[in-house]
Amino acid sequence: MYLILFIVFAGFCLAGAINLLLQTHPINSALSLIVVMTSLAVLYLLLGAEFLAIAQIIVYAGAVMVLFTFVVMLLNAGREERTLGSRAARPIGFTAVVVLLAVFATVILRVQGLNPAVLGHGLTNAPNQSNLVLLSQVLFHELLLPFEVTSVLILIAILGAVAIARREGAERTAEK
């Protein structure tokens, strides 16, 4: 059953990533990136990393994507064209929802008697030590520098986007 869930959500992740690259509208690309990040959260959940899955949803699919969406909207200050959406979106979306609900129903019906210890596939921790303790040890001891560098790079990218938008806005007002 885990293999089926992995294949389904890995497919969602790949489809969202491909859609991200093929979209011409930045907001649609941001929505595709949310699909990718949510699918990754489900994959983390399947691996037994509950905290990482929730952090993926809250931090990346939530806060960072809202921030990216604001930056994209700030850069695209012009008027948007109205479309009714993709023609393939409805049949693919409907099929994906039906498959997703069928997989969830199957999992709920079959997993009722599972032991939660079975979910932690490759984690080697002491019986009284949680996955959160292991994650915090790795993140804040071994990977502290890459963690901080990533946060600084995201901050620099956002400041650069705001500076570009301000300069273009000042050029537009100077032309009028």
Characteristic terms for this protein:
176 residues; mainly alpha; Four Helix Bundle (Hemerythrin (Met), subunit A); 0% strand; flat
Question: How would you describe this structure to a colleague?
Answer:
It contains six helices and no strands. It is an all-alpha fold and 176 residues long. It has a domain at 1-81: Four Helix Bundle (Hemerythrin (Met), subunit A) (Up-down Bundle), CATH 1.20.120. Helix 3 runs parallel beside helix 6 (144-175). The chain is flat. The model is unreliable at 114-123 (pLDDT under 50). Belongs to the complex I subunit 6 family.
Total strands: the figure is: 0
Instruction: Tell me the strand percentage band.
Output: under 5%
CATH superfamily of the domain at 1-81: NADH-ubiquinone/plastoquinone oxidoreductase chain 6, subunit NuoJ
CATH fold assignment of the domain at 1-81: Four Helix Bundle (Hemerythrin (Met), subunit A)
Query: Which series of helices and strands comes N to C?
Result: HHHHHH
Poorly predicted tracts of residues: 114-123
- Count of helices? 6
Q: What is the percent of helical residues?
A: over 70%
What is the straight-line distance between the termini? 62 Å
Q: Return the CATH class of the domain at 1-81.
A: Mainly Alpha
Strand count, sense and closure of the main sheet? none
Rg from C-alpha positions? 21 Å
State the CATH architecture of the domain at 1-81. Answer: Up-down Bundle
Cα shape? flat
Given helix and strand content, the structural type is mainly alpha
Tell me, rounded to a whole number, the average pLDDT: 75
